[in-house]
């Protein structure tokens, strides 16, 4: 019995230690239960919800807030008032727009776009919630609301009191039920003050296909620092050892990928089947210390031939031993993408391309650089 009691006490102590470590951030960032929000200024002022996927941060806002524009500025909802900029990626049905976000505001962008959502049970048990919004100074306001109608696509909410009135500039605000996101405020009826809320699960289901996700898929959210390529350090890539898809032509051969010629030469492969894998040997036939690679897309035309989702793996062995170090997205607006990760020792690097931006004839890059120390 003393041993059993001792084990229970030890387990309890370990749980308390783990909870303390998580709370203090010593065991890494926790996934957010509720997405980060932001004040967004574009064609109009409104609100945005921030979602994460593959090292990138995205803003979801009603399309009428963008008002036909292509650029927006953001202020995050915290005392630090982190700022960001965003470029429009796509407008969807249900008056939704998705923008790619950069800047300090992305540091707390951790709500995974691939997270599973189950709202029906929550909506059947919760009749009240809060409309949460961010002001231009980063302050957060909460308006108590009653859910007056539940549909398959939209919810209707009404102010719980006179101090909870909603208005036009709140479009994009998050409806929160308890500790869960339930919807995005899309419009306010000026006659009765009711809010029209797009269900959060419907909003996410609408934009997921753009990212190659189905409702059951999970997006991999890994934070990694983005750094520019420093000049004068050379390229450790010695030769392309193997590849899984043939070149489009002699002018687009695989060796173009590491010839250092930049946009002057381009590697293109037939996008017959994904993933496409390219394995590059590092110089000296020896293990090298690396902490980044650079993917260069300048010269690839049309831009729809650029890779979209990709993964970087490394191995310190001559065969096998692959370890993933980064997953991300290469955008058509990028001429290059510097991918930084924790320092590792590697003999080979693999680039695994999972998708491209839609051109049926080819997918490729102009250079792959492994900077030396």
Automatic annotation (TrEMBL):
Signal peptide start-end: 1-33
InterPro entries attached to this UniProt entry: Galactose-bd-like_sf, Peptidase_S1_PA
Keyword Transcription: no
Keywords assigned: Signal
Gene3D superfamilies: Galactose-binding domain-like
Domain of life from the UniProt record: Bacteria
TM region(s), chain numbering: none
Protein name: F5/8 type C domain-containing protein
Organism: Marinobacter guineae
